[in-house]
Amino acid sequence: MKELxxxxxxxxxxxxxxxxLAGVVRYTHYSLMVTGPNxxxxxxxxxxxxxxxxxxAQQVGEILTGLEGHPTLRIAPIEETYKxxxxxxxxxxxxxxxxxxxxxxxxxxxxxxxxIYLEEFARTxxxxxxxxxxxxxxxxxxxx
Length: 144
Hints:
Keywords: Iron, Iron storage. The protein is mainly alpha-helical. It contains four helices and no strands.
């Protein structure tokens, strides 16, 4: 096994945590902005996504502090597009999930063959984010 690049791993975990916390804000905002006949299930979907983003941020933060890193108090930048049609916010959500997927893939690449635990964590999160992208793509089919 190779030695874990602690600085790179900690920096990446900080970035992921900020991104997941931005997801909490993003998905909470979306849940408030949905209108129309399908509002209730879509609101519930976004509330669930917000809760899951918080859980992910907490999991990442526990690992980060376990590696003696210090999480920031920031969140990743969130662009407000002022487009609140369901198709628009689902498309924005898909882009957010794709970015999360890339961050977790970067984590896997960074910890590969250096930490079994961190590899497995990254793989689990990659699977979760892939599932989210599949779900969002299915939800977007009717909007294309």
